[in-house]
Amino acid sequence: MANPLRSEVRQLYKNLLFLGREYPKGADYFGERLKRAFMKNKDVTDPKEIKKLVDRGEFVIKELEALYYLRKYRAMKKRYYEEELSTMLNIG
User: Fold this and answer.
1) How far apart are CA 90 and CA 6, in angstroms?
2) Which residue from 52, 55, 46, 68 is spatially nearest to 2, judged by alpha carbons?
3) CA spacing 20 to 30 A to 50: which of 56, 61, 68, 83?
4) At 45, phi and psi to the nearest 5?
5) Measuring CA to CA, which residue among 5, 7, 30 is closest to residue 17?
6) Which of 48, 32, 81 has the alpha carbon at shortest distance from 23?
């Protein structure tokens, strides 16, 4: 693997591992799947193919971030809007 791509792949792995800490099925589950995915592609040597895989990994990062933001939004909505609804019903 070429040096610049190697650093990109390592950074991608670290970022995914960090994001996996909050994965709904648990960090251990995510870590095992992540390791398996990277090990499956460890023999890829074509720089274009490696870049394509890195781009796919970055897409996964964006999807995970969206999942986490949605989960936080739902928790906040549940926390605040249910209180507001219950106070409105008590007033009326």
Assistant:
1) 61
2) 46
3) 68
4) -120, -15
5) 30
6) 32
Q: What is the dihedral of CA 41, 45, 49, 53, to 10 degrees?
A: 40
The tokens for 84 are: 């507001």
The tokens for 7 are 């650093």
Q: What is the DSSP secondary structure assignment for residue 84, as one 8-state letter? A: H
Report H helices in the chain: 3-19, 27-40, 47-91
**Dist. CA 78–CA 61, nearest whole Å:** 26
Pick from 19, 8, 14, 5: nearest CA to 71: 19
The single-letter DSSP state of residue 42 is T
User: What are residue 25's phi and psi, to 5 degrees?
Assistant: -90, 0
